[in-house]
């Protein structure tokens, strides 16, 4: 069995560990997570190991990105399994702070972003979300001082928001987006997939099938408005409650009228039962 990564829980311990990691001028990659690790997370770690000599994985379930009606309390926490997976993936360091370390008493600072954070996608349904994400990710960057940080493309708007924040604030970290890891039937891997019943799990791949069909039709010259309307109807017919099914510019996330508007990304968010799933695909 591979040796377990070093686990640190306090800022002084983190600083000492970072000094050891950088003793030989090592390049450092950060993979921020909320735990409940699956193959998608491990793909980030493997990519990180290819790009840097030392890899830090943070595990912190961030309360500030959950609204009161969302699943912070029930969000899956699988520490022992996560530790075993990160040992197998040969991560070097796990940063596992508690809430009082990240948000001490009288904490009063937030990072608020515009641009892709106000694209009328996730922000329309979760207006609290990106302030929570950017604040915690900004803190992680300051704490860990990585050269690069890797994020999955499944949370595509989040990827663009974090990329913009890091550039705007001159944080000195390069953001790398890693392609979505999927189950064999196309469902994007997510920690929330464990909430799906057997019937819901069987229906869930309809999101990816619809994205693929829509992207193919657009590449073949079909009218964008008709393609998106048909896709939305298909998703609802599969038993989903649709939040959005949108064609956006892949970099700015502004609405796309046609493929002539630049690189286009299709993005979807929908609920099946009580579980909300998101996915996206480039055209």
From TrEMBL:
Beta-alanine binds at residue 65. (R)-pantoate binds at residues 65, 158. One of its GO terms (cellular component) is cytosol. GO terms for molecular function: ATP binding; pantoate-beta-alanine ligase activity. ATP binds at residues 34-41, 152-155, 181, 189-192. It catalyses: (R)-pantoate + beta-alanine + ATP = (R)-pantothenate + AMP + diphosphate + H(+). The active site is at 41 (proton donor). Pathway: Cofactor biosynthesis; (R)-pantothenate biosynthesis; (R)-pantothenate from (R)-pantoate and beta-alanine: step 1/1. PANTHER family: CYTIDYLATE KINASE/PANTOATE-BETA-ALANINE LIGASE, PANTOATE--BETA-ALANINE LIGASE. Belongs to the pantothenate synthetase family. The reaction proceeds by a bi uni uni bi ping pong mechanism. This is Pantothenate synthetase. It comes from Nitrobacter winogradskyi.
